[in-house]
Amino acid sequence: MIGMSYEEILLFALGAVGVLIIVHWVTEKTGLPAAVLLTVVGIAYSYLPGHNIVLDEHIILYFILPPLLYNAALDSSLLDIRRNMRTVISLSVVLVLITALLIGVGFSYWVAGATLAAGVALGAAVAPPDPVAALAVGRKAGLPGKLITLIQGEGLLNDATALTLLTVAIAAQQDGNFSMPSAIGQFVISAAGGVLIGVAVAYIVRFLRPLRSDPLSANALSIITPLAAFLVAEHWHLSGVLAVVVAGLMIGHDTPRYTTGASRLQTSAVWRLIDFLLEGVVFLLIGQQVKSILGALNDYSWSTIAVALSITLGAVLLIRPLWLVVTQLLPRQLHLRLGGQQDDDMDCPEGVKKEEPINGREVTALSWAGTRGVITLAAIFALPHDFPNRELLVFCAMIVVLVTLVGQGLTFAPLVRWLGLRADQKDKARLRNEARSAAVQAALNRLDDIQEEQHDNVEDEAIEQMRKQLQVRLDRYRRRLDLLEQVESQEVPQSPQYEAALMVRQAVIDAEREELLRWRDAGRLSDDNLRVLNRELDHEELVLPKRPGSH
């Protein structure tokens, strides 16, 4: 933002937020990729008179990537990643390394003036798919839960692998010598150290759990955690990205146990806003860089640009499906096949079906779920400004993002439907209602324990009142389970009584809210009191299913 006054910076910030809101609305109405629209808006802005913002690689590396990765880790499942460790290693580590190294070798041999380190840096940036677009489309299309888990787990740890490799490649280029054994050794040390730092940060946050009971303190602690993990790891020349991811996975796993409901609700809302703003602003700012990047390409011949693009796009589009097919054909002992039980001697938990290896249709869907996004763009712009062939590398990465976002992003949902891949909604509804029944039964058992202890008549009344409420819920869940068992189709059956109860409860909440507003407008209720009472209604409304099949 060099050369811009404070007023210009403020106007730019206000305009950027306004653009994000408009683009989000357009995306919701049309289904077009928000990343593409924001990048186009950024490109258009760059040709307008006035100042353009020059991206600083340190701002991206220290202030943008850690929060984005941490939020993704909080929303992921540590248990799912552990259960699918072979798949995670195959897609998030091996496939990323192979893609990056092949692009590096291709650049060193066929792109004039490019080094192996420069090619590996580009490969590391474009290797990791961004699962956000694929998951958003896949969930709407009803993608099976097994594939959702694979895409989500891959998308989390492949970023860590790629960005760790990117750091190694940048350091090797600056040293002037890229040695494969040395790079591998540095990668292993950096990754292992980052994991240890992440574990240490997660345990420190667990130790601070008294602070996490207060929503404001929990939010402040949550915001500084990824920045602290990244800073400590980078200070010791270890993988700050892995430190952030590991810390996020462990803290997300502990969150239901060590935080209050109010803290979780507020923290989740804060992180959704941070993610929305950071991702949107990154695409806007990156679009602004296109003008200067295209101008810098004048230093390269058309043949050099064509070769560089062919190598990059060819590797991104071909290596992933080839790897998925090959790994499914390999012997199981090599531990690279996807899906199914991860270890032959591992017992499947009681009540959990043993998963089968993924089939051909699922391999096809996973092959097409390779859209690149904000991590690729943020990573490539993290290259130092004096990095060799930087403009060519950035241009190739941007083309990869646009091709995959538009080409794969817009065709993924039709492909999923054409393949006939549908989630078993009835099984999901059955599992949720079984869990709800078990939770309510545990609450009734706890009431029995309380009743056996010393108590007075007032407590007797409170216990009996609570028992009646819990029994009503338990009866409702059991009736829902009976209905699910009676229906032979895989779709979730609709219960007229259940839907009527939801409609009535929503109508009651709306009536309560309208009455509170009438009291406020009549001067009988202050705004402070209105906010407190409205918050209570908001929490009640939050637990109501928003669409058929979500219950």
From TrEMBL:
Residues 460-487 form a coiled coil. The keyword Disulfide bond does not apply. The chain crosses the membrane at residues 6-23, 30-48, 60-81, 88-112, 187-208, 269-288, 300-323, 392-416. Residues 20-418 form the Cation/H+ exchanger transmembrane domain. It is a multi-pass membrane protein. It is found in: Cell membrane. Keywords: Antiport, Cell membrane, Coiled coil, Ion transport, Membrane, Sodium, Sodium transport, Transmembrane, Transmembrane helix, Transport. It comes from the Bacteria. This is Na+/H+ antiporter. It comes from Actinoplanes couchii. The lineage of its organism: Bacteria, Bacillati, Actinomycetota, Actinomycetes, Micromonosporales.
